Amino acid sequence: MIHPHTYIHPNAKLATNVKIDPFTVIHQDVEIGDGTWIGSNVTIMEGARIGKNCRIFPGAVIAAVPQDLKFQGEYSNVFIGDGTTIREFVTINRGTKDREKTMIGKNCLIMAYCHFAHDCFVGDNCITSNNTQVAGHATIGDWAIIGGMCAIHQFVKIGQHSFISGGSLVGKDVPPYIKAGRNPLSYAGVNSIGLKRRGFSIERINHILDIYRVLFNKGLNTSQAVEYIEEEMPATDERDEIVTFIRERVVASSNVLPKALMMMICLSDAGKRYNREWIFRHFNYNFELGQSYAITGPNGSGKSTLLQVISGSMYANEGKIQFTINNKICADENVYKHVSICAPYLEVIEEMTLTEFLDFHQGFKSFIPGMSSDKAISIIGLEKARNKQIRYFSSGMKQRIKLAQCVFSDTAIVLLDEPCTNLDKEGIDMYHSLITDYCKDRLVVVSSNDEVEYKFCNHLINISNYKIR
């Protein structure tokens, strides 16, 4: 039944038993399947392909052109799977030349005021609660549940059977079967309740738990953990789903970069001076991913200055400093994404508690996958001080915080300036554990004249060799 106050373009293709309420507009190049109901004041634009037995409530807009300045009018579609319900004032945009379509799977429930931008892929049986906003190119796996008022960043991938709590800002991938929430987003264990409701046995759920214990708790880097899971754990659909997700997504963005990725810092004839005095000059060196370097020399020789020049926080007076990824130059404005630093001259926010500070830091630079503020605090041995203002911490406790902030950040390059400053023997042992457990495949540069701090390094650079004689 089609109400007479509805406008339908002559070139639209509707099955015979579609019901459309008044004041709805159907543009050309639209296809709507059997048994679908479309409420009042709905707009369905060119390129929409709507399946059977769908329900689209008043005010929804389907297949509007992308809100993307790169869109140049190329042909694209929106596909809505059979049995999907789209509630009031939902907007779903067409694709761009990237994927050429936006897809919503079968039997999904898209609640009121949700938005799906161009090139989003949503699997079957998904639920997105009211006011959730999904940016372009995002992917949501089958059976995922997204709480209300979530904001999902572009290109993020959310694995199947995952659950995200309401109000979350989803700026990173969420692996399959995982619960996630809070701000900044943290993983909160396996979605065991959701899995039980979908008929997963206790054995299957425990198997998933065992896989994630290897990934997050065994002390392996990501590549090692994936290799261990493939070699030591039984082959199941769940194992293969998680491993595939990690290989495609997490490895590419974690601190443990895949071997195929090459990163290098190249200094060519670099020099730095203060007033008329050259601190170093004619410095030529390449720093490579997976290697560790020590910059040594007496006090006042310029070790820290060279480290700051390498980090990009201080300019060189002559020469060139270049970051390359896979032989492509990294733009200066993007260098900070790949670098974390610990140094005596960097301050922590003393008015915050330890937990508040680490959470605040993650709003600017995420921790490595599997790391949370609580876990970081436990690793550096400050559990009893988690809710204490940092102003009341000793200098050694503050140094532990700086190390955690640096090492646990999701970066490929770790720069350490006198990293054991104010640490006792237990703290120094903790420092070496951090290097062993979390820095194996990264580019590490240590500035120090104390061998205890750099004894693990396989390259030594004496800054005195770059003084003008």
What does this molecule look like?
- There is one protein chain.
- The protein has ten helices and 36 strands.
- 23% of the residues lie in helices and 26% in strands.
- Helix 2 (202-217) runs antiparallel to helix 3 (222-232), helix 3 runs antiparallel to helix 4 and helix 8 (395-407) packs parallel to helix 9.
- By secondary structure, it is an alpha/beta fold.
- It starts with 6 loop residues before the first strand and ends in a 7-residue tail after the last strand.
- Strand 34, helix 9 (425-438) and strand 35 (443-447) form a beta-alpha-beta unit.
- A ten-stranded mixed sheet has the order 3-6-9-12-15-18-21-24-26-27. A nine-stranded parallel sheet has the order 1-4-7-10-13-16-19-22-25, with no helix packed on it. Strands 2-5-8-11-14-17-20-23 form an eight-stranded parallel sheet, with no helix packed on it.
